[in-house]
Amino acid sequence: MITLKANFKISNYWIIAILFIIVKLCLHFFTSTNYELHRDEMLYFNMADHLSFGYATVPPVIGFLAFIIKNIFGYSVFGIHLIPALLGVASLFIIAKIVRELGGGILALIISSSAFLLSPGLLLFDTLFTTNVIEQFLWLLTTYFLFRMISQNKPELWILIGIFLGLAFLNKYSVLFYILGFFIAILFSSHRKLFNSRYFYYSMIIGIIIILPNLIWQYTHGWPVVYHMGELKRTQMVNMKTNYFFADIFTLNEAFTLIWITGLLSLLFLKNLKRNQYIGVSSLIIILLFLFSKGKGYYILGIIPFLFAAGGCTIEKYIKGKLSLVIYPVLLIILLYSMIALPYGLPLLSFDRLHNYTVKTHKFIIYPFYRWEDGKVHEISQVYADMTGWRELTGYVAKAYDRLSKEEQKKCTIYAERDYGNAGAIHFYGKEYNLPEAITFLESYVMWAPDTIPDGPFIYINSEIGDIRKLFNSVTKIGSVSNSCSRENGLLIFLCTDPAVNVQEVYRKKAIEEKKLYR
């Protein structure tokens, strides 16, 4: 134990917790700018310019956070990635609190913190500015306060829980699975009397007040979330299979999966944790809900950190004596295995080096996110494939834009054919070239698209030339993205001049048709 001035004491437990936090910060700080932004990050960052109580596929929290980031850091990749890193640090602190309140010691802390620190899926969450990292943090925070409320018999904590769940709803609608899981688990436990507390009803009122603006927005825009869920089911969930779900869960935590499974089983069956059994039951319900609804494996990551804490405490408590001769080598193997998988959770290596590393390790590592939304296994993580190629694309667009006179540039339209990643890249990386905003009819960009366009040149971005030749007499190919690691590999950029038809009218009609979806 270290004693500071004014009799402020820091136990060895918290010294170790702080060391894990420092390592966590360093991992993200020194890797946060190694790759380009992810396509979703660019979309969310663009929301800063379009503050609203809702967007086409997500609630408003991410947009308001983007507004704060933009006004503090500007167009900074490091600034954008600072928020998820800090949320990851906060999660580590909460895990340390949970371990302590479960009666765990230093070994339990090391096990649970290592599991959180080195799990590839959670590392990716804490690297990217997306709704996923916010969801994981809010689920953990809510579970911690549920745990405290029940273990300390403090029903007044319902108020905070209502606030957290309201914010979680404004971040991602999948929190409804979390709410349902915990509601059922508590309802059929001895703790159901807490539902009779006046604080529970206060929390419901507070939660409804928090989410009401978004519900009103959804209603006035024709419930975009319903359309979005239909599109997810049609294009992505249709490719999900039961074995994919469980394989993905394993790859997200690699060998540390054994730790959270230990935590889940201990919460379900150990007598000394019977008071907290509702957490194990709710976690199991949430897993089953996502499994049967054909959700993706990473959807459950919000419940994993608490299970890490429970698993660490169980191992520390029960693995003693001769069993320790077995568990310590096993823990070492788990740690080494996860260290090998580290480049798939953090952008540590260049894409060329990552490919070579994959060739050498593919026989004993199952990589996360190598199965893409199409249900097929590819040679690179879909997450990483969405974090490269954007600068090259923007460079070609700038090349086309520079061919125009000043007068032509004022009337130029940049159009990305149904790809929000391309539009987001022009918004973020195009600032360097003073490019105008790109238009696309996908995601929230449909709502942001102008009703009309000027009578001027057209820069067209698509994987094929399509029908653009019917609209312009002069269509010049400016370049093509050449990046085998990028999902945009082969993307074409055209400069279109000398209209063959009234392009403005064609666009006006298309804009009307596309915007009908959102009233």
Can you summarize this structure?
Helices cover 58% and strands 6% of the residues. The chain is an alpha/beta fold and 519 residues long.
Secondary-structure blueprint:
Blueprint: E1 2-3, E2 9-10, H1 12-29, H2 39-46, H3 61-73, H4 77-101, H5 106-118, H6 120-125, H7 131-151, H8 158-169, H9 175-187, H10 198-220, H11 224-235, H12 242-253, H13 257-269, H14 277-292, H15 304-318, H16 324-340, H17 351-361, H18 382-385, H19 390-402, H20 406-410, E3 413-416, H21 420-429, E4 438-439, H22 445-448, E5 458-462, H23 468-471, E6 472-480, E7 492-499, H24 503-515
Parallel strand pairs: 3-4, 3-5
Antiparallel strand pairs: 1-2, 5-7, 6-7
Please name the defining characteristics of this protein:
519 residues; alpha/beta; five-stranded mixed β-sheet; two-stranded antiparallel sheet; 7 strands
Low-confidence stretches: none
Q: What is the strand tally?
A: 7
Secondary-structure-derived class: alpha/beta
Distance between the termini: 63 Å
Provide a descriptive summary of the structure in words:
The structure is a single chain. 45% of the residues are buried. The longest helix is centred in the first third of the chain and has 25 residues, at 77-101. The protein has 519 residues and is α/β, with parallel strands linked by helices. It has a 5-stranded mixed β-sheet. A two-stranded antiparallel ribbon has the order 1-2. The chain contains 24 helices and 7 strands. α4 runs parallel beside α7 and α13 (257-269) crosses α15 (304-318).
